[in-house]
């Protein structure tokens, strides 16, 4: 009965989330019904309430006027508006100086777009700051308009009833209401003006942003289009005039540095990065002589400050909302420089180290020239010279590396060959006038190399950090960490690997110009999907659902590990109870996670009504055995007629229960083979469980002695053999009993009890050896099987050979006497 109650409780636990969702939906409907439009106020009859209501109205007016004064204090908004107006004017002047965005470099376009996006966000914040008091003023004005109507209707009703009219009270109420409404309207009008000014700035910002976006789109579309004269065209050389130098100077002057306002807004993040770099550098210096440092961290011990700088910039730079061009260049210089230094601690091949520093120099110089907006003819010439000279240099490095390897090629050689091919393609594109394609191939190739180097370094650093963390004595004191720390560390490493590789993949799309930012790539991915009935299944829904299910599984694993290593040992729970609790906890959390995943995916539970009906029909026809085994598994978990570790006999096969699942149970035999037993068989069939209530078992050893032996002595020897064995328990006491007169021996049984049934065969063997030893010492004979053989109708010659003269006597005897003679 108690098992059935537990099963019902378990089912109710699984259905709790669905019931809660239904209840929540019902509450929402009730709230929707309760939140209805307020009814019109019915003016009170008579004049007795005029003065008290006037007093209350005066108090409410004082509170309202005080609130209006607070809401119309827009000095902070005005200051921010003036600041944004000045920023936009400065930006407009710079845009006018730079000219048509179609001739800008990609770095300048991204820089200006970043500034415009930053201003757009600031203006949006101003709109939000204005909208909140506007909404409150609107509600206040509506409420006092209702008060005005109420008092006018009340005065009209008193006049119609020809009651004594308190003119002063009604007049004072009207004046009070008018004062509140006038002040509210004034504050409302001023905020509307501010909102209009912000909207005007937003329109200008949007126009400029659209121009920049159009230029970026046009540049992407021109990737495979000839955008400049080829090197074989005289028009290319005519561009090198005296004015080119002036354009270089102009570009340097126009490239604005990092403004003081940017440091004011993002200074906290800069200080945070500096603090993290300093702390990490000091920490790594102290760990130089620590023997238990993780293998992934050995290379960073040589360069602690480069490690701190690299970790701080790589981990926190994504927090910058829209970094300026020069700040972005500064971050790239720091991260590429520190990563190049760290790589020298990993690489022993000098050619690889040279290649890393050479590519780092090319990448940083190209990025600097792009930021300075070098005129197109000079930048094209620079790329052509660099790519043309880099190809033979890289191939020479590959040739020497192949020679050092005995003529064998490796991944490094393949990388150099692919990079040489890309540089050669970039040079050919540049010579043919495809400047956008050439720049994309050259710059994106270099960025890709260092992107994956940074990702690999980040993965290595975090992996070493996780191992170092879990090796600390403070964490090793926990039994959970000692037992499950390796598994938890492995999960954390895998999770971070997925994050880094995913982010690097999104950033790779930015590098190759497919999207403008990682956020945009992520947003486009989340928008992908397909319609399914009335629901649109998007990637965002799928990822959220998968994340919830994964977190429920991880939470289940963590809780089960904590229970196994921290809670159960203190409570002294039985192994079967432990397994039952852990399995029920796992299934419950996974089921709840599944329901939450469906909810996040926008799939309502009522949509499963048809599926549930079909599932019921399936149970009635083809799924009877599966459901029977499932229910039987739940019964086994609650009722526990068998537990993990029990020794059972199933169809004359001895074995130990290793796992109890919801569908089947695994039993390991003495021969180490595994039997898969359906749970329904364990519930409905006869199963012998030798360890259900106790592990004690009786061992019976049959013994036979020769006729004529001293029976008392035999019984004493048997008891002595039992009492001298260490595995035989004292209670119940061992016993030796006489059982039968056998054909060849007098039969006894030695019956003893042992504490652990798993030693049953070993104890039986050892007792047999001890009994044999004692019998030999005391001269007690264990007889061989004996038989009496009667021989008839044998030839007399055979009898003469065995017993001479016996054949002659048989011939003299009558036939009937011969038949009675024993053979």
Walk me through what this model shows.
By secondary structure, the chain is of the alpha+beta class. Among the domains are: 48-221, Helix Hairpins, CATH 1.10.287; 256-520, no CATH class; 697-778, Alpha-Beta Plaits, CATH 3.30.70.100; 788-823, no CATH class. It is built from 27 helices and ten strands. The strands form three sheets. Strands 6-5-4-3-7 form a five-stranded antiparallel sheet. The longest helix has 55 residues, at 106-160. The two termini are 72 Å apart. The model is unreliable at 1-41 and 815-823 (pLDDT under 50).
Map the helices and strands.
Blueprint: H1 2-34, H2 50-71, H3 75-98, H4 106-160, H5 167-221, H6 234-237, H7 242-254, H8 260-286, H9 304-316, H10 325-343, H11 350-371, H12 376-404, H13 411-432, H14 435-470, H15 473-476, H16 479-511, H17 518-527, E1 529-532, E2 535-538, H18 539-571, H19 575-600, H20 609-621, H21 624-639, E3 647-650, E4 653-660, E5 664-669, E6 674-678, H22 679-684, E7 688-689, E8 697-705, H23 711-723, E9 735-741, E10 746-754, H24 760-778, H25 796-802, H26 806-812, H27 815-820
Helix pairs in contact: 1-19, 1-21, 2-5, 3-4, 3-5, 4-5, 8-9, 9-10, 10-11, 10-14, 11-12, 11-14, 12-13, 13-14, 14-16, 16-18, 18-19, 23-24, 25-26
């Amino acid at each position: 009965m108690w098992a059935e109650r537990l099963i019902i409780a378990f089912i109710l636990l699984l259905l709790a989330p669905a019931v809660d969702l239904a209840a929540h939906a019902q509450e929402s409907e009730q709230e929707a019904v309760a939140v209805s439009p307020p009814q019109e106020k019915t003016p009170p009859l008579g004049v007795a309430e005029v003065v008290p209501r006037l007093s209350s109205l005066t108090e409410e007016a004082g509170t309202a006027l005080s609130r209006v004064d607070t809401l119309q204090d827009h000095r902070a908004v005005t200051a921010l508006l003036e600041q944004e107006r000045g920023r936009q004017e400065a930006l407009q002047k710079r845009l006018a100086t730079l000219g048509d965005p179609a001739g800008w470099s990609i770095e300048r376009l991204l820089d200006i777009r970043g500034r415009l996006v930053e201003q757009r966000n600031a203006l949006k914040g101003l709109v939000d700051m204005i909208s909140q008091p506007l909404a409150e003023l609107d509600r206040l004005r509506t409420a006092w308009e209702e008060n005005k109507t109420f008092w006018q209707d009340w005065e009209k009703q008193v006049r119609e009833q020809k009651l004594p009219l308190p003119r002063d009270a009604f007049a004072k109420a009207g004046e009070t209401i008018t004062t509140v409404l006038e002040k509210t309207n004034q504050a409302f009008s001023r905020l509307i003006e501010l909102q209009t000014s912000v909207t005007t700035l937003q329109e200008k910002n949007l126009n400029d942003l659209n121009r920049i976006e159009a230029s970026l789109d046009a540049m992407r579309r021109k990737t495979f289009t000839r955008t400049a004269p080829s090197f074989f065209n005289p028009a290319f050389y005519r561009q090198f005039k005296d004015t080119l130098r002036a354009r270089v100077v102009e570009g340097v002057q126009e490239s604005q540095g990092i403004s003081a306002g940017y440091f004011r807004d993002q200074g906290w993040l800069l200080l945070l990065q500096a603090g993290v770099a300093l702390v990490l550098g000091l920490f790594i210096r102290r760990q130089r002589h620590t023997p238990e440092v993780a293998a992934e961290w050995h290379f960073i011990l040589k360069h602690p400050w480069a490690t701190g700088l690299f970790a701080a910039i790589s981990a926190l730079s994504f927090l910058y909302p829209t970094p300026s061009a020069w700040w972005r260049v500064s971050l790239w210089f720091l991260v590429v420089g520190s990563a190049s230094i760290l790589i020298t601690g990993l690489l022993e091949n000098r050619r690889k180290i040279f290649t890393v520093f050479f590519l780092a120099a090319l990448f940083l110089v190209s990025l600097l020239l792009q930021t300075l907006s070098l005129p197109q003819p000079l930048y094209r010439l620079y790329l052509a010279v660099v790519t043309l000279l880099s190809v033979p240099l890289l191939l020479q490095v590959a040739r020497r590396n192949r020679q050092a390897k005995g003529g064998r090629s490796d991944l490094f050689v393949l990388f150099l060959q692919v990079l040489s091919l890309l540089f050669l393609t970039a040079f050919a594109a540049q010579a043919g006038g495809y400047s956008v394609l050439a720049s994309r191939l050259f710059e994106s190739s270099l960025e890709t190399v260092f992107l994956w180097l940074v990702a690999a370094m980040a993965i290595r650093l975090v992996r070493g950090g996780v191992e170092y963390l879990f090796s600390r004595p403070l964490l090793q004191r926990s039994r959970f960490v000692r037992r499950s720390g390796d598994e938890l560390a492995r999960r954390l490493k895998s999770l971070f690997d997925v994050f880094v590789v995913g982010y690097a993949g999104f950033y790779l799309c930015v590098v190759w110009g497919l999207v403008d930012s990682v956020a945009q790539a992520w947003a486009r991915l989340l928008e992908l999907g397909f319609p399914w009935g009335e629901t649109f299944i998007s990637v965002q829904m799928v990822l959220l659902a998968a994340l919830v299910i994964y977190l429920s599984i991880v939470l289940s694993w963590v809780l089960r590990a904590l229970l196994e290593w921290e809670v159960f040992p203190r409570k002294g729970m039985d192994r079967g109870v432990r397994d039952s609790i852990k399995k029920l906890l796992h299934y419950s959390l996974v089921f709840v996670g599944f329901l939450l995943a469906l909810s996040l995916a926008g799939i309502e539970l009522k949509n499963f009504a048809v599926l549930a009906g079909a599932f019921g029909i399936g149970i009635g026809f083809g799924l009877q055995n599966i459901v029977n085994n499932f229910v039987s598994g739940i019964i086994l978990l609650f009722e526990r007629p068998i537990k993990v570790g029990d020794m059972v006999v199933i169809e004359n096969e001895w074995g130990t229960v290793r796992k109890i699942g919801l569908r089947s149970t695994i039993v390991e035999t003495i021969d180490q083979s595994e039997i898969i037993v359906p749970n329904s068989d364990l519930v409905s069939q006869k199963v012998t469980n030798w360890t259900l209530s106790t592990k004690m078992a009786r061992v019976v050893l049959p013994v036979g002695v020769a006729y004529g032996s001293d029976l008392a002595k035999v019984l004493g020897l048997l008891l002595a053999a039992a009492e001298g064995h260490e595995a035989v328990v004292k209670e119940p006491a061992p016993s030796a009993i006489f059982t039968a007169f056998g054909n060849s021996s007098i039969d006894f049984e030695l019956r003893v009890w042992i504490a652990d049934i798993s030693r049953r065969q070993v104890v039986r063997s050892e007792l047999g050896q001890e009994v044999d030893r004692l019998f030999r010492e005391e001269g007690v004979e264990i007889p061989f099987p004996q038989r009496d053989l009667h021989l008839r109708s044998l030839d007399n010659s055979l009898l003469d050979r065995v017993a001479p003269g016996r054949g002659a006597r048989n011939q003299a005897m009558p036939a009937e006497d011969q038949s009675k003679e024993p053979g």
